[in-house]
Specification:
This protein has 400 residues and is of the alpha/beta class. The chain is built from 14 helices and 18 strands. The longest helix has 18 residues. It starts with a strand and ends in a 7-residue tail after the last strand. The chain binds NADPH dihydro-nicotinamide-adenine-dinucleotide phosphate. This is Saccharopine dehydrogenase (NAD+, L-lysine-forming). It is an enzyme of class 1 (oxidoreductase).
């Protein structure tokens, strides 16, 4: 099955998507890399041109639906892979609706002024996508993304009932800088400085930022401090995994990272409230982003591994059952393969696989869906094949 993909964005994640599409010319016959800064698209094209996948580039401001519509009309893709920023989700979905083209992203829509991490705006498009006969696949990165596929796989093959899900996202990578974020700093810092939240017995329980801490001994990484955060897949899993009683999300942070973040927060650098500076309005967090290392530049410097997975408890055949499914990814191996570190790699590979599922017609039903709403098996097979092999543990240590 051959198809054409329009990739919007040319940052860290987009670079991996482009590499991975080019590794699969039997599916991605042609791609167009479109972003705000065309030089970044051209740099990617120059790196990968000459293979079987035909590559073109375009300049687009994806905040403007009309520009995206025109680009889609000119290029004629089967699917749009949105790996720009969450602020562009709705304008790109509108353009897909106007042109009848499938849509894939890796992060929920965010209004620029308030961090929300909610699906409501995108779920509101369900009927429109159904009527248009096209698929919107939401959150096809790693988390959200593979964590939802892992959960759907556990539900299909290992449980009659799932009672609790703990998603643990660990990064034991070291880039050698005193402080840097592994993906877009603005999105990353907004996520971490927000209140924590988890789902229990039908309710959402809020916790102050980074106030819940535990130690967990992760396979191939070792013991790490993990902190409870809210993460967007909790919202869709709470709806889609019937009968689940508790869902939590945990992420590792080093003491050094948290100390830097605390200071930046205390001095107001993580604020998204605009301020006046030298007669100009600036947003402190955006200014901070401008002075921090570009996540794309961390690739050659980062050593160590990531481990992201789901620890699940429930019942099977009337007996209690536990199951842990996870992927370990090596930063240096990712860099050797596609020139990016593991954070971009673990997001870009599932974005490519999501688009592949749609082009091949395997995950193709009109409407707006999160990844866990599809059959997980073909996606799980594709993870093993395309660089994110997963492992299982049937008696993991549990988080109390
Ligand atoms: P980067 O900041 O590296 O790249 C973002 C790209 O989007 C840049 O090329 C930028 O262009 C482009 N862009 C921004 N605004 C526009 C616009 N209005 N029109 C066109 N292009 C635009 O981000 P990442 O690659 O790190 O992240 C990409 C996405 O992946 C984000 O949405 C992020 O939240 C998500 N993500 C998801 C994860 C998951 O596991 N689900 C994990 C990590 C990230 P320019 O170069 O001109 O600024």
């Amino acid at each position: 099955m051959l198809g054409k993909a329009l990739i919007i964005g040319a940052g860290g994640v987009a670079s991996v998507v482009v590499h991975k599409c080019c590794q699969n010319p039997d599916v991605f016959e042609e791609i167009c890399i479109a972003s705000r800064t065309i030089a970044k698209c051209e740099a990617l094209k120059n790196k990968l041109d000459g293979g079987q996948t035909k590559i073109s580039v375009a300049q687009v401001d994806a905040d403007k639906t009309e520009e995206v519509i025109e680009l889609i009309k000119n290029f004629g893709p089967d699917v749009v892979i949105n790996v720009a920023l969450p602020y562009q989700d709705l304008t790109i979905m509108d353009a897909c609706l106007a042109t009848g083209v499938h849509y894939v992203d890796t992060a929920n829509y965010e209004p620029p002024d308030t961090p929300k991490f909610e699906y409501k705006w995108q779920w509101a498009y369900r009927e429109k996508f159904e009527k248009a006969g096209i698929t919107a696949l939401l959150g096809s990165g790693f988390d959200p993304g593979v964590t939802g596929v892992f959960t759907a796989y556990a539900q299909k093959h290992h449980f009659d009932e799932i009672h609790s899900i703990d998603i643990v996202d660990a990064n034991a990578g070291d880039h050698g800088y005193p402080f840097a974020t592994n993906f877009n700093p603005e999105i990353n810092i907004r996520e971490i400085t927000a209140n924590g939240r988890y789902y229990e017995e039908g309710k959402w329980i809020e916790t102050p930022p980074l106030s819940h801490k535990k130690e967990y001994d992760l396979p191939e990484i070792g013991p790490k401090n993990i902190y409870l955060l809210y993460h967007e897949e909790l919202e869709s899993l709470a709806v889609n995994i019937k009968g689940v009683k508790r869902i939590r999300f945990w992420m590792t942070f080093s003491d050094n990272y948290l100390n830097h973040l605390k200071v930046l927060e205390n001095v107001g650098m993580t604020s998204i409230e605009p301020i006046q500076f030298n007669g100009q309005e600036i947003i402190p967090l955006q200014f901070l982003q401008a002075i921090l290392p570009d996540p794309a530049s961390l690739g050659p410097r980062t050593k160590g591994k990531t481990n992201i997975g789901c620890i699940i408890q429930g019942t099977k055949d009337g007996k209690p059952k536990t199951y842990y499914v996870y992927n370990v990814c090596d930063h240096e191996e990712c860099y050797a393969e596609v020139g990016s570190q593991a954070i971009s790699y673990t997001t870009g590979v599932p974005a490519m696989i999501g688009a592949m599922m749609i082009i091949k017609g395997i995950w193709n039903k009109p409407g707006v869906y999160n990844v866990e709403e599809f059959d997980p098996d073909p996606f799980m097979d594709a993870l093993n094949k395309h660089g994110l092999p997963w492992q299982e543990d049937h008696s993991p240590t549990l988080l109390d």
